[in-house]
């Protein structure tokens, strides 16, 4: 049976057959007018469709970012290839010779200059972070009159007119200047305006030290010292020249099988300083007792009065005497009597030429008496003009209030400071100085040691080098470069010599005029002794003011978020200062951590939260200087409180006082990156032992974990479910000597700048979300150990182990991705975002990461960091993370390292970009990479060379040799028993004292 | 056909006829929404709003909106996930395992329990996606063909196993549930008055005719699906537990986890079924279908699984001590006595101690006490996951990284939000779908000569406009020979 669909099919005409099996019927235009103006329906639809699509596409165009190639490529600059220029970091506190890494004309990182005989390639955390300050939007970006933008010429003209008509004293106030040419420029200014005096003051004053040593800092050489006694000098962290001293210090702290000796380090101090954490014997003393301590030591060493050898002071005295010329006493006190006695002790030890070298240091020249006199003069109206040259005394001088009132009385006030800070904003004229990375300059940090800085970028803002301003006002219109060059004719007569000096950054020679004698003459030891023995003992709670490793006492780094977020090496606190109180006082006064106290002294009071600090001397509290800026910039303002106002000023400046403390009832959380303080007797995490044991048998200082197998006890790596990786080419590894690591945090900042690590701000640190790829774990020893399980019970023992001792021993353990060969993170990632490389690296593929955070949970070392927010675009982070947020800040980013997106995991990569660069360089030259050519940022910045990085596949590399030598002795893996087989090896810390970290054996 | 003993207690009380069953259950669907339902839905919708707001904050700003930190990278998110997955267990257990074991009493509760399963799994599935840093790339966990070269999913990762386990479980549960719904949808379709309802239910019922062949296939498919689902009941939570068990975190790295998690899941699932059924029973007046006997039976299962879980808790402590592994030992001491002791002891009290009250007959048969108990167990099981996840993570190997976790408002919002999502779905289900499996309940009615499954002309007259049916409604199984 057949049904026809219609009459057409029945007819079966050829016309019908044509289209009968076609899928579509031929389309007829509905309107076939010849009229050009008419639009057929289909055309209309086509056009409309195109129009809509085009409009839509146009509106979602991605923003165009223009990359302009060089029209004339500078000879030196190759895109993507970094250049290095030698320069010098000195901002009035510590001196570092640096190499500036510059990419496409932008300085992006500072590295230590290995040519320097002083810092020898080491770099402090502050110097590491200094590159960020170059791109600080808080700098003054133009010349100004009364805070309003002004033309340079107008400012110059007005200043010159006013200077010419100034009657009375003209003062230039600056921190210590170690630049011969700058001093010459100032002298030239002074010869043009003869009433000029140059007053230097240091925010952390060393006046007493200078006074006792003829106006210079003695050339300490810790590398030759076998016994070091420090009376409150934090010489590894903040005192005078910490990088130089740390380099020297570790020489006698490093041990190996063939050198089983160590220096012995006694530290008498109030607050637990970085140096105190490294001391073999640390004695907490009140600030007021420091004089008595110095006197007792003096009497025991010089006077021959035997101190009780059972006391730690007696021990120190006896060992010092025995050490003789290899003994060294240093003191951070600003009491001339104490410093006089310290000098006398050193003289009596006969250490001149050994631990006190001939080359005196110039890095402290400030004279408190001169500064105090100037402040008085300003208030008396005796000063006609004052020029602040990178000095901010309104903020950082204990007499800041008087400076402020004085400025109002001075007819002409000029600021050369880089910003309208607390002092600059009060001045009539602002002629901002260049950043040092934009400047030429010379330095003589130690007598006979010269160094240069050179500009690595044209001035970003309308600023002018301060020396040039001074010269200009003195009527000399030469550029400072020419001035400097002319000044160096004697040292580098030829252009070639000059070029070499600029290239190297350092050379030997001297140029600085003789040091100015201190305003107050030195005391005699006898007078000092009698003054100290007659000193009255204050009653009440004593305050010690100290300086942080990150932020200097001058507070000039306040607007540098890297340094604000650098955890204090001891308290692990970031973003602000606090009152460090001993536990005993906190319990007596019923203060809890984070309770806000009102601290009153000199009729002034500040409010700060409590931090319970183990090792803080009983009856004392400590507060860091350098915080509480009000005009530092957005990131640095109102972080902490300014404690300089609490310093004692009636007899010179003493960084101590008697204070009254009252609880306000408020609380203010302190942002700490580590909140659990003790090791809980977990020897598998970090190991230490005593020098005595090491001397006896180096093979017994490390406890190697064993696991039970059917064949008896075995090393954990003997049993595995895994197939081992084969590394055919390289196998990167790292060794960290816990004996050399002093915990300074330089590596943390080095890593942060190298790897574009985000800064997250105080609240996120409180939320435990700091992003540092590298951290330094700090553990205090506890009084309770596992051997109390039977007597006290397990629960009580564990609870007691959480409390640090009153004066604990400390161990620092740098911790970063351990690049496990059996990485627990790699197995759990569902999308293979973290995988193992053929060179032993545990690599993170940010693009692939979906952010389940399983890897971070499964990381036994907790080194993985998650991008909780979009740190580069979330407004919450605009101020603290400016280096990823603003166009200006972004100039500091390392173009070789991705800025990680929100929602991905990140972690230490062993600076894979540096490994890759080193391999490519070697490949270009058709050779294998040389050992030492590829160095991670942390290993490079370490002032004590505690970190060794290299290829473990190369039998002659430093790391291979080190691991071979230390195998079975000090080399251990953290958490060996879980058999993750890290590529990071630690070397057991050896302590030149009894170890209090673990239960005594057979006790 | 099965034999119904005249001596055995009836599973459905109230002397219901087949028609009464249809009438009672379809009534809820056909009637106008009552005020109590509207009020409940409003509350649920409010929390659904909270959910959407929390999702917006999480997705727009990032996981930083939660309370997690560098040490505790999972907390409420995965706690909620495991909790919801656990709740989702009872449905399949009731429908599949009990079906295989011929536990006829399950018929009254399986529909709602399965719905609960599906909604709970939906809620659970929110968390693995939302907890990702970049949820828009969640599809990368599937081993899809891609343009990224050799990139593929990591088959070593328990998270990937999770993806398969949960998606399989969800799919099978959904199919099982829907197949069961088809005959009942047909009943509603046949009774529907409005054109929208008639159209909707006829679409939903897939053209069910109620022929003997269809019933036979229905029974077969149910059995097959029950067979497929049964291993899933075990596998899902086994695999979820492996997220923890395969890790190196002390307190997670435990071989006891799979059975312990499955028991815990059944435990919490039954608790949730009880919570929901006790409410539904009152709201929809289903006391005759969900009897005290049902409640007592579920109470017993809850008590047994609760005891298993309790034994597991104690075993973990024993093994931690017996292994003499320092980190493991400390993890458990810290669990019970550390900063989160309150969470641990809440868990112990809720999960181990309170269910033991079920030994008392008075408690077992008390609606009020059972309701309270079921809520307590739900709280306890939430704490169990919180304890496992947070107290293990917050103090693992390196004391330097030890940290505390505290939830943010968004964490709380998401949790309450999924409760809102769950109850929104459940309330919509309860209103528009038959909450009790009519077809199956009809098979377990107890018949007598006076009260047989007969055609009642009087009642039928009221529905004269119905499509002509020869004897029983199309959806009723053919049971005329029941008396034999």
Automatic annotation (TrEMBL), chain A:
CDD domains: MopB_CT_PHLH (cd02784), PsrB (cd10551)
Annotated 4Fe-4S ferredoxin-type domain residues: 732-762, 840-869
InterPro entries: 4Fe4S_Fe-S-bd, TAT_signal, TAT_var_transloc_signal_dom
Protein name per the record: TAT-variant-translocated molybdopterin oxidoreductase
Species of origin: Hymenobacter properus
UniProtKB/TrEMBL annotation, chain B:
Keyword GTP-binding: no
This protein's UniProt keywords: Cell membrane, Membrane, Transmembrane, Transmembrane helix
Membrane-crossing residue ranges in chain numbering: 37-56, 81-101, 113-133, 159-181, 221-240, 260-280, 301-322, 342-360, 367-392, 412-433
Annotated Pfam families: NrfD (PF03916)
Superkingdom, natural source: Bacteria
Subcellular location: Cell membrane
GO cellular component, as recorded: plasma membrane
Presence of the UniProt keyword Transmembrane in the record: yes
Bilayer topology: Multi-pass membrane protein
PANTHER family documented for this protein: POLYSULPHIDE REDUCTASE NRFD, PTHR43044
Family membership noted in the UniProt record: Belongs to the NrfD family.
Official protein name in the record: Polysulfide reductase NrfD
Species this protein is from: Hymenobacter properus
